[in-house]
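Lab notebook, bench 4. Still working through the backlog of constructs that have no structural model yet. Next entry is a single chain of 163 residues. Request: give me the structure tokens for it.
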Amino acid sequence: MLQTDYKLSPRTYLYGNYNGFSSRYSSYFEDHTVSGGLGYQLYNTDSLLLEAELGPGFRYQEPNVDEIDDDEIIFKDIVKEPIVRGNINFSWNPLENLTFATKLTVTAGQSNTRMDTEVNVTNDITETIALKLAYDSKYHTKVPSPTLSKRDSIFTVNLLFAF
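Model written out:
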């Protein structure tokens, strides 16, 4: 994912976003979106951040037809369509060395809706080393075949270094 923000006021900003992945094992070989729109920081302090974004965009999806039989296919066409993207970011630092963060992104188009959820906890062990536990999930309301999973998820453990 790539994102750029341009501040319009202390709480309001314009954003540009690209989100995409290529995978041989998910319901879609290719799943890419480009979006731009307006963001607003509902709450922003040293320990709490809550912001929302909304804007139009474009989606490209290539279904994974290698994992299904010809008689199972619901749709096998490449998706190229306009979308609407909404995003909510939440980050909370209850302690100086501990951060809880979550993000929910909904990308809706005519062919399907994708919901991306990210939840993570970061603990600063020292000033230069941190441990991050994260759970990421992508859910599609419609996939090319009933034999393919609607949800792809991953749990990661990361050791972060600052130089």
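Notes after review: The chain has a mean pLDDT of 91. The first strand starts at residue 2 and ends at 7. Flag for follow-up if needed.
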